Amino acid sequence: MAAKRKKSKPFNIVVVAQGGRLQYEAALFAASLRHFDQGFEGRLFVAEPQPGPRWPDDPRIDSAAVRKLLVEELGAEILPFESRHFGADYPYGNKIEALRALPEGEPFMFFDSDTLVTGALSALPFDFSRPSASMRREGTWPEVPLYGPGYAGIWKSLYDKFGLAFEPSLDLSQPDEYWRRYLYFNAGWFFGACGPSFGARFEEYALAIRDDAPDALACQELDPWLDQVALPLVVHSFGGGRPGPELDGLDGDVTCHWRVMSLLYARESDRVVEALAEVTAPNKIKKVLKEYEPFKRLIFQSKGERARALFDRDKLPRKEQAIRNQLKRENLWMR
Q1: What's this model's pTM, rounded to 2 decimal places?
Q2: Contacts of 98 (CB under 8 A, 6+ apart)
Q3: Are 221 and 142 in contact (CB under 8 A)?
Q4: Is there a contact between 82 and 97 (Cβ–Cβ < 8 Å)?
Q5: In which region does residue 75 sit, left (phi positive, over 0), alpha (psi from -120 to 50) or beta (all else)?
Q6: What is the pLDDT of residues 176-228, one digit of tens each?
């Protein structure tokens, strides 16, 4: 008789929210987690940047209704954190600095707030001792110059800078000087064994790349790519790498990183659209999300269905920009 599989240790989830769009995205994320993963036993943290010199205005959640929904109805814990290095100049740095505020020594999973949970996330077989991140990415970085180092030279200079072995990070099934050969993630989700430890190294690497980049990066743009440049190095430094097939549900049938609500309707599966409708149907969720005009128009006033009718999901344009342009022509581009 086969041995019963040992239940995974509970883990914490963290998303970032602040005033404006992100607070409503975080509320939608939390609602979808509670709806589709009622067996989740960890803590749900909504990390909130605090006022300080790196923010010209107060960045905290400014909707009392959102805060009440998150805490009282959806069981989230607001997690204040200080923006010491990034803030308004590089808001993607929120995901780096928020990790330091997580409980020490507890496994964590970070998600961008523009993510919808559509299945039992906690049932996936995570190995938190081997961190990983999302492979739903494009070859956005680096931009290889006409005269200068190629992909290998650019990436190896970063591994050398931090004393990391470069060769084990390569996917040797991909051709030399093809971007997929080199470890590169979308930072929309990632996980590890300890938030503060992961965050400290993420911060160290990101600041070192920003402030003292190797010569091979002389022609490279780091805004907005800094987090995605540093992330594979951090993952690799902790003994992690590309996720295995056991985690295909992430960016699959368990989560959807939708990014822009108009794009969700235009290109995601029928199951994702149905899941969104299920999550947002309860009045306690609906009345809060309606505060945000794009959600009100796309989800609750059928603009999303109009956007969806413009496209055949089996024959989508190859480039996302073509989808964006068509939505804009129809006044259906809303974030």
Answers
A1: 0.95
A2: 14, 16, 47, 49, 79, 81, 110, 199
A3: no
A4: yes
A5: left
A6: 999 999 999 999 999 999 999 999 999 999 999 999 999 999 999 999 999 99
